[in-house]
């Protein structure tokens, strides 16, 4: 399922008001040091953050009218490969789980000055999966952020988050209604050229999770009409 990562999704569907809110924060120079984006996994929080990174760092290649990014820009290539100097990205749900050494490396990296005269964003996806030692180590970094450092923590709420981390953050809750859910699901299935073999109306889950469940059924050759639950 590596091909389904949000960094490769060229269009953001919905969240217009939240995107405008982020833009306003930037224009008014009121961007909080730590933002916590909370909501169901797979509804587009990571895609939202990625699009904001494109808007901030690669504005000339971002179509704000259609909420669409260019897949051919130098920024896209660097960002997907985690090579862009002003973005530190950690995914706590990757095959190689984030450990205490990763947090220590992050702290060391943040002690260095930024290469561009812009903000440095530290994006931590699936922060709810961090263990207690990593969470406490991260907390110490959040308590004394650098002048140009801004954290975006993506919380899928699978496990309780350390209260001290929440207290350091401005929490923004993400939700979608059924119409938005169906619209996003159709878009990502069309974009990734996948046929919906599992009726979206029978499975009330997020579009991202539906895509992965659909992939699993297809890979394992499971017929949705079979009594697979039994």
Task: Describe this structure in a few short sentences.
Helices cover 38% and strands 13% of the residues. It has 230 residues and is an alpha/beta fold.
Account of the 3D structure:
The chain has 230 residues and is an alpha/beta fold. It has helices spanning 16-27, 45-57, 74-80, 100-110, 132-143, 163-167, 178-191, 207-219; strands at residues 34-38, 62-63, 68-69, 87-91, 120-125, 149-155, 170-173. The strands form 2 sheets. It has a 5-stranded parallel beta sheet, covered by helices on one side. A two-stranded antiparallel ribbon has the order 2-3. Strand 4 (87-91), helix 4 (100-110) and strand 5 form a beta-alpha-beta unit. Helix 4 (100-110) packs parallel to helix 5 and helix 7 (178-191) crosses helix 8 (207-219). The longest helix is centred in the last third of the chain and has 14 residues, at 178-191.
């Amino acid at each position: 399922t590596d091909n389904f990562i949000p960094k490769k999704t060229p269009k953001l569907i919905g969240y217009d008001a939240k995107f405008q809110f982020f833009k306003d924060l930037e224009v008014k120079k009121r961007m909080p040091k730590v933002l916590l984006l909370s909501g169901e996994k797979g509804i587009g929080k990571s895609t939202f953050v990625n699009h904001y990174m494109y808007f901030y760092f690669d504005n000339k290649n971002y179509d704000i009218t259609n909420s669409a990014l260019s897949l051919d820009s130098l920024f896209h290539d660097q960002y997907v490969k985690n090579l862009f100097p002003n973005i530190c990205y950690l995914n706590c749900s990757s095959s190689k789980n984030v450990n205490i050494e990763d947090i220590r490396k992050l702290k060391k990296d943040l002690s260095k000055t930024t290469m561009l005269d812009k903000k440095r964003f530290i994006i931590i996806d699936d922060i709810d999966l961090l263990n207690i030692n990593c969470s406490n180590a991260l907390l110490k970094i959040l308590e004394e952020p650098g002048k140009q450092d801004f954290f975006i923590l993506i919380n899928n709420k699978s496990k309780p988050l350390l209260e001290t981390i929440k207290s350091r953050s401005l929490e923004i809750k993400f939700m979608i209604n059924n119409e938005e859910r169906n619209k996003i699901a159709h878009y990502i299935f069309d974009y990734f050229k996948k046929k919906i073999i599992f009726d979206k109306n029978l499975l009330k889950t997020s579009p991202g999770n539906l895509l992965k469940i659909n992939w699993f059924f297809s890979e394992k050759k499971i017929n949705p009409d079979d009594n697979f639950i039994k």
